[in-house]
Design goal:
Blueprint lengths: L15 H16 L6 H6 L2 H10 L5 H7 L3 H8 L3 H8 L2 H9 L11 H12 L11 H11 L1 H83 L7 H10 L5 H8 L1
């Protein structure tokens, strides 16, 4: 039974179902067992068996041979050594069988004639059409088989990336705020230093002005004091003094005026 027949919908079944059946026969000829072990089919119910046919890819024939308990018997039937039998199957025969057993029928041989032609190419040591599936195809198959887990993993990854982006944005914003705060602090310190400098300068200028005023006041008082203390040094004072002597001192008002 091919995978499309296991869909329980045989409205779109064509000759590629026969290619799948031929692939099963070729697989059993090479390995001594069917792609799905008969024991697995016996233990599973009908729905699980149909699911395995639809979704589970069998191991390559060479892989099945390397783990088969009947490898010695198969080698004896083929009249060859066990290791040589596995090496013989590995490579082109692997890909021919797996191409015939593709779950996606568009990737199978289009007809039994093309399958026979590829086998002829192998027997004649010619390049075969079958080749290993690409990484993209394997990835699509994996996603199809594990859709739920892939969706959950994708959601988890998106959530993780969103958290990382939010954290990074928060760090950038916090750094910007810190830089702004540091710049504001530097500006405040500069302004305070300028204010202190201006205040000190104003105090110095005020002190200098007070000193200058005191000096000017002192210089203004000094000549009057000197004339009163030493009339001989100031000629302008001597006539007044002589007149005072001639007049006998004069009136009190005159004496007061002369003393000034």
């Amino acid at each position: 039974m091919s995978p499309e027949q296991a869909e329980m919908n045989q409205l779109d079944v064509d000759t590629r179902c026969d290619v799948y059946s031929l692939g099963v026969v070729l697989y059993e000829l090479l390995t001594g067992t069917t792609p799905i072990h008969k024991q697995q089919i016996k233990q599973a119910d009908l729905l699980e068996t149909l699911r395995m046919i639809r979704d589970d890819d069998p191991p390559r024939p060479s892989t099945r041979l390397s783990t088969a308990e009947t490898l010695a018997t198969l080698s004896e039937q083929r009249r060859t050594e066990p290791a040589k039998l596995a090496r013989l199957v590995r490579g082109d025969l692997d890909w021919i069988v797996m191409k015939a057993l593709e779950k996606d029928r568009d990737r199978r041989y289009a007809s039994a004639a093309l399958l026979a032609q590829d086998i002829e190419h192998y027997l004649n040591d010619e390049p075969v059409e079958a080749s290993p599936p690409s990484t993209g195809y394997r990835l699509r198959k994996f996603v199809r088989r594990h859709r739920g887990a892939v969706v959950a993993g994708a959601l988890l990854l998106v959530t993780l990336l969103a958290g990382i982006a939010a954290t990074a944005f928060g760090l950038v914003e916090a750094r910007q705020q810190r830089d702004q705060a540091e710049a504001a602090g530097r500006q405040e310190r500069d302004q305070r230093q300028r204010a202190e400098t201006n205040e000190k300068r104003a105090r110095d200028e005020e002190a200098a002005a007070q000193d200058l005023a005191a000096q000017l006041q002192k210089e203004t008082r000094e000549p009057r004091d000197c004339r009163a203390a030493c009339p001989a040094r100031f000629p302008a004072c001597r006539p007044a003094a002589g007149q005072r002597r001639r007049t006998g001192g004069g009136s009190p008002a005159t004496r007061i005026r002369l003393s000034l």
